[in-house]
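User: Quick sanity check before I run a bigger batch. Here is a single chain. Can you write out its predicted 3D structure?
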Amino acid sequence: MMNIKNRIKSSPNILLSYTAIMTALVFIFTVVFSLYIPETEGYFNIGETGVYIAAITGGPIVGALAGGIGSALSDIALGYTYYAPVTLIVKGLEGLIVGYLAIIFTRILKNNRLVGIAIGVILATTMYLLGNTFYMGQAEITLGVLNPLNINVTLNEVIWAMGAILTLILIIGISIFKPEYIGYTLSTVTGGLEMVLGYYLYEQVIYGPGAIAEVPFNIMQMIIGTVLGLSIVGAVNRVWKEKS
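Assistant: Done. Predicted structure follows.
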């Protein structure tokens, strides 16, 4: 049975089709949930989930194209057109990095469960600390685009504790039962840090010191994207194996 990456390599048509599907997936994940950030006129989203799925399952080319184009189209659709050019570059590079490193790290770290467990502890701790520092109290969340639904929610310590515990359980579970995914985890963290740095440098030029305000939000995007992305990657791989 051929995996997705090998089938993509074997046919330009499959490459084009899968890239289009993943571009749509990135777009959907990005626009379906957003939280406005006044300090930088940007927004928090879960688009990293789609970028990571595209990059891990399709490889660096699919990751770069789907990540860049899908995310840039999301900026336009949500009214953040001024971010689209930098998003095309930053998210495209993120997808490229994740797709490439997923291959490299999987070979190197396939059975290194301690690395996976350490990553899980770091991500869970970071989620809890960032959540309790920057995401407390009332927040308005927007769901959808055509007929957006605004929901007022209260974020508290309990929510972030539960999120951190679930993150820890998932990453450690992956490290123990699917050690071949440890490389995926490290690749998404590495690519995510590029995303955080890329937006920070851009916003530093535009907003000056205020650019630091979005860093915690982008780090949280990386963590949530890793958790959700790895949860879905296995299902995507199974579907392709059944069809091959």
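The first strand starts at residue 33 and ends at 37.

User: Great, the batch can go ahead then.
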